[in-house]
Amino acid sequence: MSGPHSGDPGGDSDDGDSGWNSRNSTRNDDRPEESDDDAVANESAVADASTENATSDVTIEDDGIVRWFLGTEDGTVVFVRDILSSVAIVAVIALILFGISGIWPPLVAVESGSMEPNMERGDLVFVVDDDRFVGDEAVDGTGVVTLENGENGDHEKFGQAGDVIVFKPDGSDHRTPIIHRAHFWVDEGENWVDTKAEDEYVGDATCAEVPTCPAPHDGFVTKGDANSGYDQYRGGAQTDVVSPDWVTGKAMIRVPWLGHVRLFFDSLFGAMVGPVPHGAGSGLASSLLDGSTAAHVGVGAVVASGDGLVRRR
């Protein structure tokens, strides 16, 4: 018989499936969805784990000594690698400074006070070849502007007119280099005491009383800013008129305090090897790869002594 009382299995099945699907959908909706950030974090974690495994798997046998050295996380190797990286960076900086300055070493540390207040003890000074960064008032045939010429123009270095130069006293390779200001130029045979010298630096002295007058050759008369006399008379350097051939550089920039690092090592190593004899003079110490210590890269190997000189180790 058919009618409203007859069973309908098909209809009962559809209603059952619908109920089950609804409950299953509800359960799925209750589950938290994975966000994009979570996916990225998971991928990053997997990548880091893969990288760590790859690094730890680096071996000399499989990858060669170079790749192993660059990729291993062994503590000793990492330490050596960091040291070599630091040395390489310092060497690159030193080469750049050398390329700019044209002389070696390009940095000097001031040890005494003959150039105060314009250069203080412990200053680190960048020096260049005298034919670089030449001022308009430079003496013909040189790259040096004297205080006399600088006063007539606008060339000023370290608080006063004129260039501060580094030179070898009497042209000697065995005497201490000096860093002082070039005051004026004299020609061979010139009576510079009467023609150009300032009375406050020579007093009542005459040319006959000054050993370097008349000038034995063309060159510069120099003086430390804090000294009471010219280097060619009664100043600290006690040198003849400075020939252009004796000039090894001129000062450009100073950085306060950094030179104390060099001076510290000088005092430390000097104490180990015994006292170093000092002359009379100005103040400069330099060291860049001078063989005494790698910490001196960039700074030359001279030590100032007395009122106007520096002594090379």
Question: What do you see in this structure?
Answer:
- This protein has 313 residues and is an alpha+beta fold.
- The protein has two domains: 38-100, no CATH class; 103-312, no CATH class.
- It contains eight helices and eleven strands.
- It has helices at residues 9-30, 36-56, 60-71, 75-101, 147-152, 192-195, 199-202, 259-273; strands spanning 107-109, 124-128, 156-157, 160-161, 164-167, 178-186, 219-223, 247-255, 285-286, 302-305, 309-312.
- The strands form three sheets. The chain has a seven-stranded antiparallel sheet with strand order 7-6-5-8-2-1-9. It has a two-stranded antiparallel sheet with strand order 3-4.
- A hairpin with a 3-residue loop joins strand 10 and strand 11.
- It is elongated, with a radius of gyration of 38 Å.
- It starts with 8 loop residues before the first helix and ends with a strand.
Order of helices and strands: HHHHEEHEEEEHHEEHEEE
Q: What level of helicity do the residues show?
A: 25-40%
Radius of gyration: 38 Å
Please, what is the average pLDDT?
75
- The end-to-end distance, rounded to whole angstroms, is 126 Å
Residue runs with pLDDT of under 50 for 5 or more positions: 1-29, 46-55, 271-282, 287-313
Give me the count of strands.
11
**Secondary-structure content class:** alpha+beta
Shape: elongated
| Count of folded domains | 2
Strand residue percentage: 15-25%
Major pleated sheet: 7 strands, antiparallel
Tally the helices: 8
Strand order of the largest sheet: 7-6-5-8-2-1-9
